[in-house]
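Example record

One chain of 322 residues, shown exactly as stored in the release files.
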Amino acid sequence: MLKAPAVLAGVVALTFVAAAPLALAMRGAMQAHLGRSLMADAAADGVNFDWWQEFASQSPGLGATFTPAVIGFASTLDGLSGLLDAQPRPLPVLGAAAAYLLAWTFLSGGILDRYARRRPTRADGFFAAAGVFFWRLLRLGVVAALAYWCLFTYVHAWLLDDAYGRLTRDLAAERQAFAWRLLLYAVFGLLLAGVNVTLEYARIRLVVEDRRSALGALKAALGFIGRHTPRVIGLYALNGLTFVALTAGWSVAAPGAGGAGWSMWAGLLAAQVWLLARLALKLQFMASQTALFQASLAHAGYTAAPRAVWPESAAAEMLGPG
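Predicted structure tokens for this chain:
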């Protein structure tokens, strides 16, 4: 992953582009609400909690998401809570997320192809691979959407509503109910991780083996996971622990609400470093899983390092060894 900084730069740029419309819309809503009032000066100098509460309560849709949970580590906890509790999000946020996922689907074909080849593919090779695999990955994305929809619509409701209600109906101690809640969260998290790792290896098999069938890639991914379960789980756990360690570091370093001046810019810089680290770890997941898949294949052609060709161009590669 570190040998492909252009890939990281690209996904960072994509993230900023996806977030920009929401940020501009929020900025416009805040300007319209504050106007030229004295409250605007107070809000510019620091956190004005009274105005904040008023704005969030009076603003529909996107404005309602502007709560204290957007500051520092609270935003991470809010995102995790929203995931585990299947909390609905405003339509503008869902629209931006859908566009972001669609762009990720397009780029992921080029990213996986780049990691599988273990050499620079340049812009033309990268986007050629992205275009070739886009529709195949999009079909797999439809299957993924159905799987996640079933998880969050039916499995989540059964575990966290029905099962939790039955298990805690006659409990007298709140800590026991909390323990059951944590256990059911863990069960749901394991199911979510299982679906996620299956889909990740399905994407890898689809790209590396040039597959056309999304269902065939899923079946092949399940077969690969079944044959290499300890290694797959070990790698996923290692990457997961890295994410936990990164999140723990962010919980310590995350800034709180500051006023105007250097503290505001320091908080903004810290948030961008956290975003960069998360995206880098996402790419590390993809690169390490691709490497594991290739290293586990019985075909030497897949696992052998690519031939060093100079000059490194598509035309030179087509000529082959002299």
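Notes: The radius of gyration is 23 Å.
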